[in-house]
Write a structure and sequence with these properties.
Number of strands: 4
CATH class: Alpha Beta
Oligomer: single chain
Helix content: 40-55%
CATH superfamily: STAS domain
Number of helices: 3
Strand content: 25-35%
Strand order of the largest sheet: 1-2-3-4
Distance between the termini: 32 Å
Number of domains: 1
CATH architecture: 2-Layer Sandwich
Largest sheet: 4 strands, mixed
Structural class: alpha/beta
CATH topology: Transcription Regulator spoIIAA
Shape: globular
Amino acid sequence: MDMYQHDSVDNFRFVLKGELSETDAHELKWAWKTAKSILNGKDLIIEVSGVTKVAPAGIDLLSRLRQSGARISATHLPECEELLRLLVCCESEMSGAI
């Protein structure tokens, strides 16, 4: 997976492309923890339009990031429809377990 990070005045954006494997999810988690130290009220946006496949650990992490306030962005909806459906299902399961 390729991960690009863009820091602007209003937001911090991760752009993900390719397959989000378990190893990549771990890398994204550490990148997020590092980015949190410089957010200072900025919106966190995770662009997933370029993601082609996601391991369960990636779905779990994206869901947790979203629950913590990150916005998941999918500018190419048809390609991301399955990923977004999985995120919604994962969040439903998480909220039901509480």
